[in-house]
Amino acid sequence: MILVVRVLVLNLIACMAVIGSPSLAANASGWVEGHRSRVRLIAGEATAQERWAGVEIALDPGFKTYWRNPGESGLPPSFDWSRSANVEAVELLWPAPARLEDGGGLSYGYAGGVVFPVRVTPRAPDKPVRLALTIDYGVCKDICIPAQADLSLDLAVGTESPSSAPIRQARARVPQAQPLGAAGDLSILSVTPVSDGGKQQIAVSVRAPARTTPHLFVEGPDDWFLAAPEAMAPAEGGDAGASGTFRVDVDRPADAKGTVSLRLTLVAGDRAIETMTSLDASRLSR
Q1: H helices within the chain, ranges in order?
Q2: Same domain, 50 and 170
Q3: pLDDT per position as a tens digit, 98-113
């Protein structure tokens, strides 16, 4: 009986030691609760030159949060890293969004939750980084409710965290930069101004793998309105799940002139690309 009690006590001490271990405690910040959601920072791979972290948002079933472009409605998240220490630069990456349609319209974002990968460049490479974040984000089901959290996490040099796996998975969902007209089975081929019965549009021709349903997300200047692309029209002789053209309604300011930059994200299955291009505003007559 005494031996059994000693074993139990030793096991309890071992468990308490693991729970209190500084190396494990550094894997993640504590969760901060928000409206039907919670958020935390998680640690990833770390070298002297760069540290990886993630902003993890977990959502209750049926709820969603938003991409940098929320679509027809919604609140895009904002990230303030100004309280961080020993940080030269912070780059937040955006996993490819999904099209989410409900009674409130069409939005772009993430259902159930998301991990945003964060690449951190330390000012002094041989010292720990103190990553501090104030995040504002929206949580939506029938209506959108704003949430906010203050988070912090120390990122040590040369550590490998169990959280590295979800961060790597999220990085794999970040669209890969690709030039217009690039070779390959997933590509944005051309962007052409067109007019349809007086409606100004751009036609975006794409190539996507067969048996996928590609989705296009278009971003432009803040004072331009670029409608959610219509369903892709398949290329002549092709199938509906491969190559084709998207039509995007455009409403530009009356005094728009010169060239403007467009960012196009094409998602097909578990792959995504991002293409930067320019458009001559004068080619869109009013």
Answers
A1: 2-19, 22-25, 164-172
A2: yes
A3: 999 877 688 999 999 9
